[in-house]
Design brief:
Layout lengths: L6 H13 L3 H13 L4 H12 L3 H14 L4 H13 L3 H12 L6 H14 L3 H13 L6 H14 L3 H13 L9 H18 L4 H14 L4 H8 L9 E12 L10 E10 L3 H8 L12 E11 L5 E5 L4 E3 L3
Antiparallel strand pairs: 1-2, 1-3, 2-4, 2-5
Helix pairs in contact: 1-2, 1-3, 2-3, 3-4, 3-5, 4-5, 5-6, 5-7, 6-7, 7-8, 8-9, 9-10, 9-11, 10-11, 11-12, 12-13
Length: about 325
């Protein structure tokens, strides 16, 4: 069978489609890669399915991929990420350990990934040891990211002075990061400072100020989102968890684009109504855009009870569109 495009061209197109959150387009490209029997098809298919919230299918695709190409460490890495994000920590640890044994697998990256799983399991001392080992073997993972992750472990163990020192070290080397990496690490630093003043000092107002600064760099930061929910009312009765597609006007500079421009963004929010959900969403968006926000679509995902209201998760990235 003849193909009009090379695998490299298709991979580049798939990356661009995923960056634009055009997951259906990415799926069409991925299918071509799979027909070529190219192993990248498993990776990009899984990433597109994950973006479409077809989580089990994404994991199943990666499991098929590691059976076909068991020495391809990147498939094990994505499999570990997705298993961890769905709370299947034991399986995630196994995937990362398997990937770590693959030829040319970046050891510091897999140690960092293992540390994140142990953090989620509450094993912060184990996670900290892995992060220290990753720092010694550092080749691929930025030092600022490793130090910030270590700070989180210290916070969870009540070691606030050590956490502040780690955050200071992270901030000193943040300039060495690629420009695309800086916002997420800067968000971590602000969110963890917020955790310190909340857990050590009980100062929720100041903690939320740090959280809002974190969100200005990365609205998907989970610790900042959790801090923003602190102090909110608890859902005493069964309350919807909404998937909200929010629409607004973007006034911030965008390279190669005239502003203002329209945008869509995705949120998952515990609230009685979509209108109440929107009020919880507003602090996650740039200040100038907040008055323009409106609910474009609202889908009730499930009912929850006993949890604090507010934004549970924000999806990073935007879909922009030109107005008439």
């Amino acid at each position: 069978m003849l193909f009009r495009k090379s695998p490299e061209q298709l991979i580049d197109e798939a990356e661009r489609a995923l960056a634009a959150m055009d997951y259906e387009k990415a799926r069409r490209i991925d299918m071509q890669l799979l027909r070529m029997r190219h192993t990248a098809g498993f990776e990009y298919t899984a990433r597109a399915l994950w973006g479409l919230h077809r989580l089990d299918e994404a994991i199943a695709t990666l499991r098929q991929g590691v059976q076909v190409a068991p020495d391809l460490w990147v498939l094990w890495e994505y499999l570990g990420h997705y298993l961890s994000d769905t709370g299947r920590y034991g399986e995630a640890l196994d995937a990362f350990c398997r990937g770590m044994e693959c030829p040319n697998a970046p050891q510091d990256s897999f140690l960092y990934n293992l540390a994140i799983v142990y953090q989620r399991m509450g094993e912060h001392a184990v996670a900290l040891n892995m992060l220290h080992e990753a720092i010694q073997k550092r080749a691929r993972v930025p030092l600022a990211l490793l130090e910030a992750a270590a700070a989180y472990c210290h916070i969870q163990q009540g070691q606030f002075s050590e956490a502040e020192a780690a955050l200071q070290r992270a901030e000193q080397v943040i300039g060495a990061l690629e420009l695309t990496q800086q916002p997420s690490v800067q968000a971590m630093i602000y969110a963890y400072r917020g955790l310190i003043v909340w857990q050590r000092d009980g100062d929720l107002a100041r903690a939320k100020q740090y959280a809002e600064q974190a969100l200005s760099f990365d609205k998907a930061n989970p610790n900042a989102a959790a801090l923003m929910r602190e102090g909110n009312p608890i859902a005493e009765q069964p309350t919807p968890l909404w998937h909200i597609l929010v629409e607004g006007t973007w006034f911030e500079p965008l390279e190669g684009v005239r502003t203002p421009i329209g945008f869509f963004a995705n949120y998952w929010v515990i609230a009685d109504t979509p209108e109440e959900a929107l009020e919880y969403i507003r602090p996650f968006e740039p200040r100038a855009s907040r008055p323009t926000l409106k609910v474009a679509e609202a889908t009730r995902e499930k009912m929850v009870q006993g949890e604090r209201k507010g934004v549970v998760r924000a999806q990073s990235g935007y879909a922009f569109y030109e107005g008439e």
